[in-house]
Amino acid sequence: MTELKNKNFSPLAGETVPRYAGLATFMRLPHYNIEDSEGTEIGLFGIPWDGGTTNRAGARHGPRQIRDSSSMMRKVHPALKIDPYALANCADLGDAPVNPLQIEETLDMIQEFTADLVNRNIIPLAAGGDHLASLPVLRALAAKHGPLGMVHFDAHTDTWDRYFGGCKYTHGTPFRRAIEEGILDPKRVIQIGIRGGLYSDTDDDWGLEQGIRVMRIEEFNALSLESVIEEARRVVGDQATYISFDVDCLDPVFAPGTGTPEIGGLTTIEAQQIVRGLRGLNLIGADLVEVSPPFDPSGATALVGATLMWEMLCLLSEKVAQRKL
Q1: Quick one: CATH architecture of 27-314?
Q2: In 3D, which of 186, 174, 94, 162 has the Cα closest to residue 138?
Q3: Cα–Cα dist 127/116, whole Å
Q4: Domain extents for the chain?
Q5: pLDDT tens per residue across span 173-186
């Protein structure tokens, strides 16, 4: 590891400024507006919006609590031996603009915000918000990189069509819309941890018909973690790939603060090990969604979210370092 060269992107050190002090930013990084973000290579930002939620709202409060919990993150990854701030200039770029009363307008606003980052060659790392927030981020990235692969952690496929008759934009539909729009290459998408109940025995057929690799929790439990990682890497290959992590992929014992909890999910250590196993892929962005603080007053779910964002930040920083070579 090398010493951090650009002090303008250095996180506050816990040894000199107590971790409960100072402004709450992702990983205690400096905060910049996009217009003032010159030199930033990885931009962390929030999407404080849950307009696509159909039942238990609250994920709009996720980014703020994740920021607070992320003060627990230190500089060096203990297993991967990565100091992301020595490899890439990272900053908190604030929150994407949202309209809590207008779904499609907000999708456009988030896409425009993310496109501004992408056009500045900043890799986006987003904190939601409900899972519909992934759609505009993917739109912005696909405009530059073409159809994307994706490693998707979730209890649900999120490839359903419409809710309540005609609403096609909800937290249960983002990846159907993304495939229909040519943003995702379904044959390069793997979904890990799927186990949620269905309204119909055909609800998940559409995604399978498109070629998505769906790894239900029963298959996951029958495999070793090494086999799961190998399969994920096989599916996405060496082309541009996005990571989308819905915390309801985890068993609610570990992440109760989420809108659609499903028992029987992954443990936190399983999630960490799989994310670490994606090291070296052609990663062009990531998100962590569905942290809903009203359902977890303890803050444990936000800590899980912050830690998994930290894991993904480490992988993205290596990608930045590689493209400098």
Answers
A1: 3-Layer(aba) Sandwich (3.40)
A2: 174
A3: 17
A4: 27-314
A5: 999 999 999 999 99
